Amino acid sequence: xxDIFVARTKNKESIIKNKDQGESNMNILASxxxxxxxxxxxxxxxxxxxxxxLRAHFITNLYWIIISFVLIVIPLIxxxxxxxxxxxxxxxxxISHFTTVYVLFYxxxxxxxxxxxxxxxxxxxxxxxxxxxxxxxxxxxVIHNIAVTKLDHVQDVNYTQSGFIPTLFNYGNLFVxxxxxxxxxxxxxxxxPREATHIIGDLIGKT
Length: 207
Prior knowledge:
five-stranded antiparallel beta sheet; 8 strands; elongated
């Protein structure tokens, strides 16, 4: 899989590493990080500094985590009910012979579902540097889209936060509007959208 953000070290085996031994690494699961230490991305310039690192709030993963948990325990529930109610369906020689194969195939699908959803959350990131805005959209294991615009092309930045859950957990959608025919940028469900808006607004004011 193509590296999306990697540390600038001689060995690029890990996704995130310390730039210097004295700096503490950013939490690899962080959704909001200002001035992150030990983080860089592939096309980052030598004198370019990352100001803001964003991804969707971890709470947005709750729906697929719950679904995954239910899918994991379903076979166990079926086995318990079969034992309690003395259901002999799985005792049939032809069925029992392939039960292990069926179960393994079932859990392979479930863990694939978990893996893909986690990667989708983990690799969809929004980075603001001292020079530009970088929006990385991960849509498949081998497919990702990277959109970039310079800060001096940004005309406006705003956010929306509606609903009880987003307000309770303080996350919302961040919108960056660019000049002319350039595409607009969106960072969905990021934590602290008000603070992120102010940080980007201050950077725009300095360009």
